[in-house]
Each structure stands twice: as C-alpha cells, then as structure tokens.
Amino acid sequence: MTLNDVEIRHFTSADAAELRKTLMDVYQEVYADSIADDPFNGVERFGRGLDGWSSRPGWTCTVAYDGDQVVGYAYGAPLPEGAVWWRGLLTPVPEHVVRETGTRTYAISELMVRVPWRKTGVSRRLHDELLDNRKEGRATLLVRSSHPKVKALYESWGWKALGELIPRIESAPKFDAMLLKLPLRGGTDWHTTGSAVLDRVVAEEDWAAVLHGDRLLVPVEPHHVVYFISAEETELMSLSSIGMLPVPAVGEEIGVGDGMVTVVWVGTLYGRDDEGRPTVFTSVTVKEKPKSE
Fold this sequence. Notes:
The protein is of the alpha+beta class. The chain contains 7 helices and 12 strands. About 25% of the residues lie in helices and about 35% in strands. The strands form 2 sheets. It has a 7-stranded mixed β-sheet, with helices on both faces. The protein has a 5-stranded mixed β-sheet with strand order 9-8-12-11-10, with no helix packed on it. Strand 2 and strand 3 (about 70-80) form a beta hairpin. Helix 1 runs antiparallel to helix 3.
C-alpha cells in the first residue's frame, strides 16, 4: 500500500448519524489496549463526546479509505464564543489569547489511524485535508503530556505549545494545549510586503500572530509613551498615557519642563506589550531655544 492508494473523503454534521458506527468501531480498535484501564478512554465517554462534537455548527470530518477499508479519521469544529475549551489551562496566559469569537479558532478533537497504516503519511493527510481552506485564523488541539513523541510530531508540522491543560471532564489527564497558524496552505501570499527584509520579519512574527489573532479585530486604546531628548541625547522628560498623546512636528516650538525648545527630530516605534496590547513609543529630540536678549 502506498499513500496514493488512500482516498480522503470529507463529511459534515449532515453525515454524522451515518458515520457514527464507523467512527466508533475505529476508535475501539485503535484504543483497545487502554479502554479497560483508562476511564478517560472509555467507549461510552468517547461516544458522548462524538455526539457532542458532531452536533456542533461547522463540524467537519475527514475519513481515509484504502479501497473499502477505513484507515483512520480526523474531526473537529470551530470553538464557539466563550468556549469552555480553555478553562482547564494550568499555564497563565493573557485573556486576549483565549478569547473566542466563534470564528477565530478551529479545534481538532480527534485524529487516529489504524495500526496497519501508521507511519505511511496518512495522519498528516487527514490533518491537512481537515484544515485545508479553513477561514479561522488558527487551529488548536490537545496532546497528552505523557506522549512527548506525539507532541514532537505535531511540532514538526508547525504546531506550538501554549501551555498545560486539564479538561474539566471526569478522569481527564493532563494535556499540552497547542496552536497552529492558519491558513495551512497558501498562507504566505497575504503576508507579502514587497520587501524581502520585511517579509522575513513578518514570518518570524507568525507565533505572535497566532496569539494576538490576525482576524481578531478588537478596538483597543494603545499605550503611548513619549520621550523628550535633548540634542546632547539626555532624556529631559517622559510622558505615558492610555490613548495617543499629541506629537509635535519638526520645527515646532514647544514647552518642555520650565523652558521653550524647538523640535529637531521625531521618531516612532510601534509594538505590543507583554499582554499583547498595542504600544507606541515616540522619541522627540529638541534643541533649547535661544533666550531673548
């Protein structure tokens, strides 16, 4: 069997009832060794979870077939506004990172492949087909903290760990919550700036984009800091404000402290603070105005 022999088919919640037995059968086979000893892997619990996920708006499922045999599958759905997904986080993260809008994050609930087809690339195909053409800005999934090799596999696919999490489900173990920037394919075109240097900077900021959300547009008052510097590069004064402060123009005469000065240079740096809020730093270089005779 080669990877090209496997066909990936796509399903939605409209197909859930017809698919249910197939998905349950594969689950019982894949997790046969742990079902008896691990309450979290119980068949009944999985069935309830499957029914809950497949009834969600936007649920999608990819199933791999080798001829008429089911090889494996993956499924998930967008996280709803105010999702409980993040409530078991043990790692403190800023609120904006886990704020859900209903269209921000696609969550992969399950990805499994039967033993004869493992290490053939099928799991990656199921993963990529599931996430292809998603409109969300990022995807999330949970990997058991006791399975570092699985975590490493996802990291090789571009996923990054956000923190540790224990779902609020009876007998739930500890997981690593992971995030992946979307779109999965063709996602670099909209980053193009026309400058190779800037394109590289943007590429290096992809992880920040996952956290802050390229498509999570929430108006936020920026933090603005203005530094007044003498021509001799001595800091004269700094002002800090939530919201933008007025910025003087070059050549303008202004009062700084107890005296009048002339603005000779203005520079601005845009960034974010540790909580992801926009922060603007403005440096104003001034020259002391000659005193009148």
